[in-house]
Amino acid sequence: MVLSVGLAGCASHRPVAQCAWPTEARSALDLRVRAARQHLHKDALTAEDIGIRYADARNAPHSGHFEGFASYNRTTDSCITAMVEAVARTHEVAPVTVRTSLAQRPAGGDVVVTLCFAALYALIAFGLTRRVNRNFPFDGGRDSVVAIAAIVLTSILASGVAVMVGEWFAVGIEVLRVGNGHLSHRTQRVPWTHHRAELFFAGVVLFWLVAALRHRIGFGSVWDHATPWASRPPRKSGDSTGALQQPSARVDRR
User: Fold this and answer.
1) Higher confidence at residue 77 or residue 67?
2) What region, left, alpha or beta, does residue 186 occupy, with left being phi > 0 and alpha being psi -120 to 50 degrees?
3) What backbone phi and psi angles, to 5 degrees, belong to 64?
4) 232: burial class by Cβ within 10 Å (0-12, 13-18, 19+)?
5) How many C-beta neighbours within 10 Å does residue 136 have?
6) What is the pLDDT of residues 179-210, one digit of tens each?
7) pLDDT (0 to 100) of residue 13
């Protein structure tokens, strides 16, 4: 959460006073070319961002002219529509094509964000399984059922927390990507917000896999279960220092 807030602070949140498209030479785009599609997608994102910044300056709660969220949404939609039409005229495409390009989100960035967070989660799960094994050793005895139950319960709690923290992390990365601390409805484009249940079950399974792998390779099992007194070598029965000495009998010669 701290990281997400920090990323949001790094992004600019500067409202704009006018709903106007920047000056750009008119040029038709051949959408059969990948570079042209990327250019249109970038312009569509800019048009949307201008609409949000303009509404923030005119009708947002902190603007001093707030008249309710219905008015704010109308201002946002009207400006975005005007900007989309400006992009369509500039590149000689249909306005619906500009709006459609907003949904064409590259999957590579989302995959990288998810994998990075999954790697961090796996490291944390590794540490948690060590603590669980220390308190509930899985040694094949009757306590193994308790150890398995502890792993299952911990995995559920850890995965639930990871889904919430991971969403904050993904939203923070999205804030940095679009360059605006106010995402507005763009939050709904972050894939994490649409797959919470799937991510939760994936987190539980990943936790189990980490626990099983750790038990399989026996990593740290000696240190998990060892205690200071258990690590001391037992004394030999014939040790002279540990043998009991018989009290010497005093002979009275009188």
Assistant:
1) 77
2) alpha
3) 90, 0
4) exposed
5) 18
6) 888 898 899 999 999 999 999 999 999 999 99
7) 52
Residue 87 near residue 50 (C-beta atoms within 8 A): no
> What integer pLDDT is reported at residue 94 of this predicted model?
95
What are the sequence ranges of the domains in the chain?
13-102, 107-224
Answer whether 186's CB lies under 8 Å from 48's CB: yes
Q: Averaged over 70-93, what is the pLDDT?
A: 94
* Separation between Cα atoms, residue 203 and residue 159, nearest integer Å: 5
Instruction: Output b/e per residue, 54-83; b: 16+ Cβ within 10 A.
Output: bbbbbbbeeeeeeeeeeebeebbeebbebb
User: CA 12, 18, 23: angle at the middle one, nearest 5?
Assistant: 90
Q: Which residue has the tokens 């043998």?
A: 243
pLDDT digits (tens, 9 = 90+) for 157-171: 999 999 999 999 999
Q: Mean pLDDT throughout 50-59?
A: 91
> What CA–CA distance (Å, rounded) separates 13 from 184?
12
